[in-house]
Amino acid sequence: MEQIQVSNLKKSYQNQKMTYDVLKGIDFSVQDGEFVSICGPSGSGKTTLLYVLGGLEPYTGGSVKLFNQELKDYTESAKSKMRSQDIGFVFQFYNLIPNLTVYENILLSAILSTGKTKDKIMETLETVGMKDYSSYYPYQLSGGMQQRVAIARCLINDPKIIFADEPIGSLDHKNGIAIMELFRNLNQTYHKTILMVTHNEDTTVYGTRTLHMLDGKVIKDEQNT
Q1: DSSP-assigned states of every residue in 133-202
Q2: Can you give the pTM of this predicted structure?
Q3: Packing angle between helix 102-114 and helix 76-85, nearest 10 degrees?
Q4: Could you report how far apart the first and last alpha carbons of the chain are, in Å?
Q5: How far is the C-alpha of 10 from the C-alpha of 21, rounded, in Å?
Q6: Who has greater pLDDT, 79 or 179?
Q7: Are 183 and 176 in contact (CB under 8 A)?
Q8: pLDDT at 116 over 60
């Protein structure tokens, strides 16, 4: 089943003097359970594309459908609900609240998203290998461990799609590989649909498919073998 459908997608920024086209007519779809890497150099439009798909930025033209509904047809409240329950975000920087423990960071996400507490926090922490660190504060953790907590925070509301923006951009090589292995496990074992932005082509091997972007366009769409 298609979870994302993109047709002739365009995104422009405009000021008083000029219009800057960032996305220049993009077409693709994403099936349930795919792990799609969006790869390209800085300035290619890949992060803008991810933010548009996640409803964080409006688009100028074309069509974006999430779960078979046109994104422009979502009300702001419906879009907010979708972001809290149906999709999750993992960013380059972990954005954990420093004066809350690991457990409390995830609990807060669950409360803010659904209005009630969750009973699966420890199970989610175990999934990302952080069960033994639930009482730790972010400053007591390495960068790789903090990113695992950020992924657990994303997972706590059981999203259908995970959007990841350069998730290993702040990590060393060893921790980066460990996080990529975790994403692959979430895709293969838990059947999470993942869209990941990266400038590092080496990380695309962990996914099932790669979209190569350049100058606001998808120049190649290939299945990984």
Answers
A1: GTT--GGGS-HHHHHHHHHHHHHTT--SEEEEESTTTTS-HHHHHHHHHHHHHHHHTT--EEEEEES-GG
A2: 0.92
A3: 140
A4: 21
A5: 8
A6: 179
A7: no
A8: no
